[in-house]
Specification:
The protein has helices spanning 47-50, 77-90, 103-113, 136-143, 145-148, 153-165, 174-181, 186-200, 204-210, 234-243, 259-262, 264-276, and strands at 8-12, 15-22, 29-33, 55-59, 97-101, 121-125, 221-226, 248-252. It is an alpha/beta fold and 277 residues long. It has a single domain, classed as Alpha/Beta hydrolase fold, catalytic domain (Rossmann fold, 3-Layer(aba) Sandwich), CATH 3.40.50.1820. The protein starts with 7 loop residues before the first strand and ends with a helix. This is Pimeloyl-ACP methyl ester carboxylesterase.
Length: 277
């Protein structure tokens, strides 16, 4: 049984996007973005809490989770920022609040500063926003994608689970690790995973371009980070908060890169306080 079903689908320039909405449709809109190599599943504990007062939109980006994954799909941050823009149009949302994790942060930032998409506010959680980012495994795979994509399935599964586990500081329950890695298994899932990592490597050029716009952001910004993040160290969060005028910084103890998994209650509390303000 799918513990996190996305009941709706829409077409985008990169294929079908699976999405869902929680809460009162008349409430102020809030959009949640995931990162690489995850899916909207990371928001399953937080989205319902936020939906008490908000109309919460969750979706799997093209190439991830339940959304369309094809061989020659453009999964660059720039292309995904374009899909976010398409989705906001599809949902007829103007000036939503946006919460973004990992590479979803760069997607949200790009849509804001590069494409001029208006937000009411932006919360960035362990966000890809400033170089360098990624683990040693991320760098190694990016350099040798053609080799890794040919790994036998059981070996790929073992390496994938070890890799994803490093995103958590206290550690992931087995059922959670199963759910996080499931979309990246099997022939199509394995190919999609290595496409994701391969297309993140040249994205530093994109981030270098949009970072020049951070100082001009004129909406409220919250920067939340896990103190023990080994994928994107907390120092990146401090640098980002210093670049964005008026940004509020929260560093949460005993949490790694997967802050929504490691400390969902603390993150939810920080988001609710920020959104209420």
């Amino acid at each position: 049984m799918n513990v996190w079903p996305l009941r709706h689908g829409c077409r985008s320039t990169l294929g079908e996007v699976r999405w869902d909405r929680l809460g009162d449709p008349a409430a102020p809109p809030l959009v949640l973005l995931h990162g690489t190599p995850f899916s909207s599943f990371i928001w399953r504990d937080i989205a319902p809490a936020l939906a008490v007062r908000r109309s919460v939109y969750v979706f799997d980006m093209p190439g991830y989770g339940a959304s369309s994954a094809t061989e020659h799909q453009d999964l660059s941050l720039d292309a995904l920022a374009g899909v976010l823009t398409e989705l906001l149009d599809h949902w007829a949302l103007t000036r939503p609040d946006v919460v973004a994790h990992d590479s979803g942060g760069a997607v949200a930032l790009g849509a804001l500063v590069d494409r001029g998409v208006p937000y009411r506010s932006l919360a960035l959680v362990d966000a890809v926003s400033l170089p360098p980012w990624g683990s040693e495994y991320f760098a190694l795979v990016g350099e040798h994608t053609d080799v890794f994509r040919r790994l036998p399935g059981p070996l790929h599964r073992a390496m994938l689970r070890e890799y994803v586990a490093t995103a958590s500081s206290p550690g992931l329950r087995r059922d959670v690790l199963d759910a996080l890695t499931a979309p990246c298994l099997g022939g199509e899932g394995q190919a999609a995973f290595y496409r994701q990592l391969a297309q993140r490597r040249p994205d530093q050029t994109y981030v270098d371009r949009i970072r020049g716009g951070y100082s001009a952001i004129d909406v409220p910004v919250l920067v939340c980070w896990g103190a023990d993040d080994r994928w994107v160290p907390a120092e990146r969060g401090r640098e980002l908060a210093a670049l964005v005028p008026g940004a509020d910084l929260r560093v949460i103890d005993r949490a790694g890169h997967l802050l929504p998994e490691d400390r969902p209650a603390e993150l939810t509390a920080a988001l609710l306080e920020f959104l209420a303000a």
